Amino acid sequence: MAENNNKNLLEVKDLEVSFFTYAGEVKAVRGISYELKPGEVMGIVGESGSGKSVSSYALMGIIPEPGKVIGGNIIFDGKDITNLKEKERLKMRGKDIGMIFQDPMTSLNPVFTVGNQINESLKKHTDLNKEQRKARIIELFRLVGINQPEKRINQYPHEFSGGMRQRVMIAMALACNPKLLIADEPTTALDVTIQSQIIELLKDLKSKINMGIIFITHDLGVIADICDKVAVMYAGNIIETGSIDEIFYEPKHPYTWGLLKSMPKLNAEEHERLIPIEGNPVDLINPPKGCAFAPRCKHCMKICLEKKPPAYNISEGHDILCWLPIKDEYEREVKNNGKSE
Amino acid sequence: MGKYIVKRVGAALFTIFIAATITFFIMNLVPGDPFMSDKAPSEEVKKALEVKYGLDKPLIVQYKNYMVNLLKGDFGVSYKLQKNRQIVDIIKESFPTSAKLGAYAILFAVTFGIPLGCIAALKRNKWVDNVIRVLSTLGISIPGFVVATTTMIIFTVNLKWLPTSGLNGPSSYILPVFTLGFYPMCYIARLMRSSMLESLSQDYIRTAKAKGMSNFIITFKHALRNSLIPVITYLGPMIAGVLTGGFVVEQVFNIPGLGRYFVKALNGRDYMVIMGTTIFLATLIILMNLVCDLLYKIVDPRIKLGEE
Amino acid sequence: MKLQKNTLLSLQMKLSPEDFEPATKSEQEDLNKLTANTSYWKDAWRRLKQNKIAMISLIVIILFILFAFVGPTFSPYTYDQQVRGDENMRPCLKHLFGTDQLGRDLLVRVMVGSRISLIIGVGSALIVLVIGSLYGSIAGLLGGMTDNIMMRIVEIIYSVPDILVIILLQIVIKDPLQKAFDSGALFGGLQKLGPGIVAIFIVYGLLYWVGMARIVRGQVLQLKQMEYINAATALGANNKRLILKHLLPNCIGTLIITTMLQIPSAIFTEAFLSFLGLGVSAPMASLGSLASEALNGVQSYPYRLLFPALAISIIILAFNLFGDGLRDALDPKMKK
């Protein structure tokens, strides 16, 4: 742990995001908090609808209509950017924070060359002149592993394969040397083999550039490959945070257990069934007053249905949102009190 | 790419050929003779006329002669409206007026339609959008002759602001151009609006936002270019519509163009003129469609030239 | 709320042992409510009802239909009745829309004209629907060379400028039809409409089905991929049953919208043709021909133009708006 890296790159405190639709207020993110150090890779895992993507849109300030941040703070590089004016945000996006998205097919504008699209970013955020920009783009292409960069700069997105397009996206996101890269399900739409290539690329970049990465996915396997720490989201809350080892080897939340158990195993027996998590996803317009996972939890207690659990700290960096450990601690306290009397 | 162009041109020429053939045979299906007028000519005179115009020969021969003449640019002569006048001369004389009117109308439609559609899309569901939407739907619902006649009544008869007929001087252009261009303008506005909304909801807009691009750049660089593509595909049908809409406008405003002449021929049953004008207009439309098709392929890089 | 370490729980919150008892299954299930699953049609109807503009248009259409079909029964005049002494009257109590130069009551003529427009609109749309669907589904189902040829034909028809062909065919068909009517060979009802209108029907049937055919073929091709077609074939159904029972019901949504939007287009075309003099024959009136007739005396009698113009604009607008609303309601990819 380097001492001079103690200052957090990113701090999110009690962030809340809601969508005000004609059907009602959809509470997509209901109070999440986490920290990220420079150079750290954090994974955010969850099912669709857990709020993982929305929370990262909030960081960039690009939550689509009709969504809004309705509570909490976001502190980036020491500065509170929660209520930043749009003009300031424009300077930050693409320059200090870069983002890559899920579907490289549709995320690139089909009528402009890839070179043009990266050039746009450089033009806005840097002082480089035309030749310098071109050189930079070629350098970026080499960095992400695109062959014949001089030729490919002038090609259109449809002339690249899926994996190549994602590399272009990564190059574009890195163009201005951002301090933070947000990767929103970057490999979900790709073949498994391509997927691993992209992951390797990101790992490679991670070692070369000291950049924080937030990696959003629903795939635990990918998380294990690249992340330093993990946050598990469910129904708009982070129900467990911890290091890679803690989450995979010492998970404490029933939902995390469910996730791990439901992963298909490569060496499974032929007729071994997949173990899904029973029940249905939460209605975010009328979320339950207690723990959101309670209706599907095998360890559900009466209090789980009544009150939302507070954040419980298991060890340094390992937090969970659950009544179970509190039950244990409570019972311990009662026993101690009983003994002392 | 060259191979593709050749293929498309070939297809267009083939279509023109088919159109001419269909027109010829349809016109010759009409019973009765082409010389019918108030004074019924005597049998001898009729026979002489038939020989003169080659109408005594079998239909297939007439067809062949007609097609060959067409290639030479000879559309035959008018039998009724202007006895013996070369149709190609009639076309040469009256078409430029129609063309001018049509060109201005298209310019008008594009100049106003595209911005209106953009504005409606950008201010979605606000009052500006609602007004534009209702008015443009109104615009494509009201038949051309209604617009023509109503504006004529209001502006020339009642208010006496503008001249009633003819095309002399700039003020006399205003109403005809507006009337002719009104429908396409509304259509383009609607098309532009839905096209912009579609583009603005695409993923690449999200990417552009994530790069820190301003709203201005996002709208006018990223979204607009993509949105124009469907509008370009509309150009072909629009030109056809303007040409045929011209018939009505020229009638109402008494403009001496090809359209007005055509309507006269229709009502007067001057078959040669009808045939010649139809083939001329059809050829024009088909060629314009071809140009727009090629244009479209150029604007959208996803379409590979050399492929259908 | 984050718990403080090293501080007793009991000091931070109020807890009791009952809180930690396991919850019962029923308590859990209460919260496991499924959101109601409505059917596609119910959902679409609900969306349509919410669309105020579409609902207003629907009401307008219904009123218009009543006006056109029921209206004339309330009028003391018929559309071709020339009332001597009542020529060229302005709108008044006796003739609500005024009269034309032959003393015919314009209100009833506009009503009858509206009737014609509606008949043409709906009739043409139906013709297009039937021919287009059959052609398109056959092409899509059979595939291969047949499909290829059928679609080439469609392309050729598509690329020939339709208005011109319509005008030509109009002229050609009208006279023989007139002769056929005069000789009493065809049904009385059609005869009243006049050869112009029947000609329009025929022409529409010959030309405008191609758009529908393309759309239906596209749908059929999509549906062909689906599982139950394989199942039906396995059970021994022949192609004809496939078309009628399985494929077409599934494209109903698209068909409804396309057909609905054909109606204003057909009314538009008829008005255009009638205005040029190619539609109905006197004394029958269509809204287009009424407008055309009105042009002559328009400076002195502007109301003669106003009423048919208004009528036709309203009906086309109403159909367009309703069709738009229908499309929004039936299209599952609706963006809100």
Name the poorly predicted regions of chain C.
Answer: 34-38, 332-336
- Helix proportion range of chain C: 55-70%
What is the radius of gyration of chain C? 30 Å
Give the mean pLDDT of chain A.
85
Number of DSSP E strands of chain C: 0
Helix percentage range of chain A: 25-40%
Strand content of chain A: 15-25%
List the total number of helices of chain C: 16
At CATH level 3, the topology of chain C is MetI-like fold
What is the approximate shape of chain C? flat
Question: What's the count of strands of chain A?
Answer: 12
- What is the string of helix and strand elements of chain C? HHHHHHHHHHHHHHHH
Number of separate helices of chain A: 13
Oligomer: heterotrimer
Report the sheet with the most strands of chain C, covering strand number, pairing sense and barrel closure.
none
At CATH level 2, the architecture of chain C is: Orthogonal Bundle
Total discrete domains of chain C: 1
Our Rg estimate of chain A from Cα atoms comes to 22 Å
Order of strands, main sheet of chain A, comes to 6-7-8-3-9-10-12-11
- Which chains have the largest interface? B-C, 44 and 41 residues
Short structural description:
The complex is a heterotrimer of chains A (341), B (308) and C (336). Chain B has helices at 2-29, 43-52, 59-71, 87-122, 127-141, 144-158, 171-200, 203-210, 215-253, 258-268, 271-299.
Description:
The complex is a heterotrimer of chains A (341), B (308) and C (336). With 341 residues, chain A is an alpha/beta fold. Helices cover 36% and strands 23% of the residues of chain A. In chain A, the strands form 2 sheets. In chain A, strands 6-7-8-3-9-10-12-11 form an 8-stranded mixed beta sheet, with helices on both faces. In chain A, helix 8 links the parallel strand 7 and strand 8 (212-217). With 308 residues, chain B is mostly helical. Chain B is 76% helix and 0% strand. Chain B has 11 helices and no strands. The termini of chain B are close together. Chain C has one domain (43-80, 113-334): MetI-like fold, CATH 1.10.3720. The interface between B and C is large, with 44 and 41 residues.
